[in-house]
Here is the input.
Amino acid sequence: MPDRDPDLRLAIIDNSIHPEVYRPVAHWRSHLAVPFEAFTARDGRWPDPGRFTHIILTGSEASILEPEVWVEEEAQLVREAVDRGLAILGSCWGHQLLAMALTGPSHVARCARPEIGWIPIRLLVTSGLLGRAREEPYTFSVHFDEVRDLPRSFEVLASSALCPVQAMRLRGRPVWGLQCHPEIDVAAGRELLRNMRDMGFKGQAALAAALASEPRDSDLIRRIVPAFLGRPGPTP
Here is the structure.
């Protein structure tokens, strides 16, 4: 972890719907050695972009294709934060929200097949956030929607067998999206899958298969967090 920047001010927007099932702030907290403030989207609580340097957009049990009532407020906040030059990292639903907010709803869609469990992703380019091109780290994933057909304002950083846009970067800005959930470790991943199974979420066969599989996690989060928390500014 790099030395703490006294000017760094981090906000986490919690997009969960059922906190008894999914607790994204707890997942992120275990990897953060810096203070942060959490804001709950379902309660209509939002950070003031003028007060923060970094924002994490968490995942959600909601579908980006069936927007919650607060989604447009969050999309507008994202656009303002990008205009101000804040560093932003979206995970899963947060990744999809970034694409929708900055490029429009035609760039998010239902997956042909959901990705649930521990999967390999292929790094297409070398980046400080993820690592060297052609590496194939494993990480946790659970999603039914995806980002697709991005304009040239975005660079695709990683893909997987079922998802062409596993990671992306807004060119010239410290803004990244990750379809996967590197912040969810093996124990938390198993707990989330069990919760989703027991609550009767869709994809029951895929959830059962993931729970029966052998987890493989390359611990990408140890690379991602220090890279993201670097002082915000334009990327090359």
Notes: The chain is about 25% helix and 25% strand. The first helix runs from residue 24 to 29.
